[in-house]
Amino acid sequence: MPSLNRSNPPVPVAEGTLLPGCAALYDGAACGLLLTTADGTIRRINATACRWLGLDADELVGQRFQDLLTMGGRIFHQTHWAPLLQLQGSVAEVKLDLKRARGDVVPMLMNAAMRTHAGTVYHELALFVADDRHAYERELMAARKRAEQLLAEQARAHAALEEAKAAAADRAVFAEQMIGIVSHDLRNPLSTIRMGTQVLEMTAPAGIQQDVLANINRAGLRALRLINDLLDFTHARIGQGLSVDVQQVDLHVVVGVQVAELRQAYPARTLDHQAEGTGACAVDADRMAQLVGNLVSNAMAYGTPGSEVTVTTTVHPQGSAVSVHNLGPAIPEALRESLFQPMVRGTQAQFDRSIGLGLYIVAEIARAHGGSVDVSSSEQYGTKFTVRLPAPTPT
Amino acid sequence: MTVLDRHNVTVEGSGPATMVFAHGFGCDQNMWRLMAPTYRDRYRTIRYDLVGSGRSDLSAYDRSRHATLQGHADDLLEIVGEFAEGPVVLVGHSVSAMIGLLAGVSAPGAIEAHVMLGPSPCYINDHDYVGGFSRDDIESLLTTLEGNYLGWSSTMAPVIMGAPENPAFAEELTNSFCRTDPDIAAHFARVTFLSDNRADVSKLREPALILQCSDDIIAPLDVGHYLQRTLPNATLRIIQNVGHCPHLTAPCASMAAIDAFLESVESARSGG
Q: Given this model, what pLDDT does residue B6 score?
């Protein structure tokens, strides 16, 4: 970088004073000073500017200032700061690259003012070498560009992620739709099988035939329940939730009938039903039966083998509840959070009774009734699922 | 957003015809302050800022719409449609002369006559064609623009050293001329200086005056001669002037040439 104090010639002192004269101050000023005509022709240039540019004054006087600029600087001069100088009378802090005698360029800052001397318009320019500032600005610009690039990359990554997410969601919806279609289509052949067994039962079979028929019947019922769960699951997930048809019924009776049916399905187990309070209640009777069925089969699967399962229905003016209790190992704490999500099940299952939709559907039925489900579970007292239904809003 | 706000349109004066003044790259409608007022008593005059320049609505600068000069030409036609009355004479400086040409080609008759100050249909040399610049020169311009990032920024308060010869002018300088968003300036510089509209030049049917400066690095003499040869209905006037802004540095000579052209346009209009 050109140094100011390195090679400035000593300034002659003006006569009669200890201070240098104006001409000497001009020549050795700490900045480059130029006077040009309006078309840019250099008429005066001080020694500092000459030294920075590496040329003698007589080589520079008569040249046009704009010819010292890079091509970009010339266009910028013509399109921006020359008209600005004309309009404003001055410009400040214009950054330009000036070509030097030895072929390189030096970044400079320029201030310029337009003035009239003896009826002629002149431009007075002051130049400052801006090497360090230039380097600093380059770094700033590079950092800015890097930041912009990173931002763009981040935006691209985000967009790709969104796209992948949308594709995954599409696949999930498709899979759920497939489940819905398949389970719906399975219902027809299954109905045929069940009707067939019912017809055969009317012929009063005996011995091994009766046992086989009972097995077919139980298997058919299980398959039907599984398919209904799957259908409800797809409705709840991709539709508007489960549909319920709420009617005024006696909850004790509805649950009692279902419990009686379930006793047939679990002949080796004790299934008790206790009713508290009056029974009148506004619920969907079929959904309540489904809910009890799911909770009981859950209790049968995870409770201590051979132990009693108790269903309790409670109907009070301030709300109703259906709970199912079994003895047995406690549900691990970590599992309780996700117990009502689809495809979650305990580890102690003796056989693959379901694919883990039962409790999810219980929760969905409770929700469709404006109610909720919770669970308490301990080694000592066993496990109790309680579905709470709100009292009907008075009309 | 209205066209008025989008382009900071200034409508002044009155007359049977309209003159629209369109500024070039690097400046704004203030460029016309020495010239436009002269026409106010005879013409309805319209000055405006190109989108992305001056006090236009910067949010309207659309990098795809304004990726070519045609986008600016469409803007110009909207301004003409909304604010002009009677026949329209466009006075376009530099890149706006080409914007006017494109507007004239895409909507024949919308502009009755074109005054082109320092026009160039292509800035880059191409075989026999002399535009004056190489591609590297334009890259070097972008480097210079980048170095003057702060100087462009419209959010910076203008640094004014004072205009000793023009104290009244200095008073107005609390506002800012020719400032804009630096990124838009860089984009517009590319669009302007890499544009090649030579294929459209021969399609302009309306009369055109080419005001060519005798010494202008942006639009060299060769370009003026090329345009006179190629435009179907053009007059070339060469003004003794160094630089690219004759309306600022040689306003009297420029207006004398424009007046003569306007006279011929008017007499053609009245069937004379």
A: 95
CB contact under 8 A, A78 and B243: yes
Say if the Cβ atoms of A113 and B217 lie within 8 Å: no
Tell me which residue of B160, B141, B150, B130 sits closest to B222, measured CA to CA.
B130
Residue B244, both tokens: 């690219």
CATH superfamily placement of domain A22-129: PAS domain (3.30.450.20)
A88 touches chain B (CB under 8 A): yes
pLDDT digits (tens, 9 = 90+) for A156-182: 999 999 999 999 988 888 887 888 788
**Between the CA of residue A63 and those of A44, A57, A129, what are the distances in Å?**
11, 10, 20
A123 shares contact with chain B (CB less than 8 Å): no
Chain A partners of B142 at a C-beta cutoff of 8 Å? Answer: 72
Residue B26 domain-assigned (yes or no): yes
Residues A72-114: tens digit of each pLDDT: 889 888 888 888 888 888 888 888 889 998 889 999 999 999 9
Read off the pLDDT band of A350 (50, 70, 90): very low
Q: What is the pLDDT of residue A28?
A: 93
Question: Which of B136, B148, B245 has its CB closest to that of A94?
Answer: B148
| Closest CA–CA distance from residue B257 to any residue of chain A (Å) | 21
Opening angle at CA B22, ends B16 and B28, nearest 5: 130
| Catalytic annotation present for B94 | yes
Contact assignment for A88 to B177 by CB distance below 8 Å = yes
Topology (CATH level 3) of domain A247-390: Heat Shock Protein 90 (3.30.565)
**What ipTM was assigned to the predicted interfaces of this complex?**
0.84
Q: Is B153 a catalytic residue?
A: no
Partner-chain contact A89 B147, CB within 8 Å: no
Fold classification of A137-238 is Helix Hairpins (1.10.287)
Q: Which domain holds residue B245?
A: 3-120+196-269
Q: Residue B144 and residue A137: Cβ atoms within 8 Å?
A: no
User: What is the DSSP annotation of A242-287?
Assistant: -----EEEEHHHHHHHHHHHHHHH-TTS-EEEEEES--EEEE-HHH
Gap between the terminal Cα atoms of chain A: 91
Residues of A in contact with B162 (CB under 8 A): 89-90, 113
Whole-angstrom Cα distance, residue A88 to residue A111? 13
